[in-house]
Amino acid sequence: MLPSITGQYLARYQRLAASEAAAGLLPATGAQRRFLLVRSLDPAGRADIVPMFFAFPRGTVDGPRLRAAAGHLAARHPALRSQAGVVRGTPVLRPGPADIPLEHVSPAPGEDARDALRRTLAAWTTQGPPLRLYLAADGPGADEELLAVVLDHTACDGQSLARVVAELGAAYRDRLGPQDLAPSDAAAELAAYKDAVLRQLDAEDRAASPRALAYWGERLRPARERAPLPGTRRVSGGLPTGAAASKLPSPEGGVPFPALLDACRAAAATLYGAGSVAPIGYPWGGRPAGAEPVLGCFLNTVVFPAGTHATPAPEVTETQWWDDLDRADTPFDEVVRAARAGGSAWSGRLDGLLTVDDAAHRTPLRLGGTAGREIHIDGRQVRAPFAVSATQGPELDLRMVWDRTVLDDAAAEDAFAALCAALPADAPVH
Q1: Mean model confidence pLDDT for the chain
Q2: 3: helix, coil or strand?
Q3: Is residue 430 scored above 50 in pLDDT?
Q4: Contact between 263 and 424 (Cβ < 8 Å)
Q5: End-to-end Cα spacing for the chain
Q6: Helix boundaries (H) for 136-255
Q7: What are the backbone angles phi and psi of residue 245, rounded to the nearest 5°?
Q8: What's the half-sphere exposure (Cβ side, CA atoms, 13 Å) at 152?
Q9: Which run of H or of E encompasses 390?
């Protein structure tokens, strides 16, 4: 039997880490390696970034104080000051100084603050720290200023965002900077991070068992991406991505995850036609057993083959989903290899993405005594033909964005309508 992809990676990393010239490099999880691979395959070399946007009354943000607070976070959390890259063919993270930039972004003629931030993030370069801050306002007379807290996806997962916001606000409140973290504490955090990643890699290696790979090979055998390649359509004007949003009634306890998968199935059927099996990805997982709760990216991307010929009974999707979760630790690259070995024509490209959040975990960023109002800035890049985000709370807050170089606006809006229609408000909770 061939060694697992993770096992091969660990062997290469250990040889690299043993060399004096590469001392101090940190290993990368399977999820981090996937982001690096996607970046390397992107014609423009774009990174996946996760921005959070907050509106504050004009003059609220003390720039030097905020930079110091962000530096304190980066000093404590190695993932926030480690640049991802490839050394001798091996993906690694290289820790750097806890120096987090805050850029004041000025709108160009004809732009507002949102346009300016959108333009700035589109120009994000992979050189630099994975945590960066941007501040913009519409003009001298504006009542508000917009703060963007942006992370490279190699440094965070969805579970980390609330913690980043809370710790950034606390460090700002207490006027802490990187110098306020004792060297012994920084060394302990670094050791805990490395230990957590090595535990994660060990779990990923064990999850690539012959039985799990056989399961994914059969599960994904009929899957094949249906969407055209990015850039297929010419966008004559406007933003590179479209967006639609809706708030729906939510049953007590929230909408079950399988019902959200079936809603994405309905959207895929509208976009790609009946009779296909569209691969939809969603993040799932957590930190390995025994690991410290370090910040970092430990979520795997699980693939759901959404057959669009018909929507099965809810209990069928639920059973499939639970079966998938039993093998959810199998790294994405292993799943792709298993699918191809099983006869699938799937390349590993996803036709859609689904992320689910809990509104109770979305805390506002507090700077001093002022809480920022979280806002959305649409029009940024999306790494799939369409991506759905669902925030569970008293209502179900649904948002869908799509790549306009792949999908027609009218078709995407029809797909969003189908998505919403497929979610009954009285769906049972499991």
Answers
A1: 91
A2: coil
A3: no
A4: no
A5: 39
A6: 158-173, 183-207, 210-219
A7: -145, 155
A8: 27
A9: strand 386-392
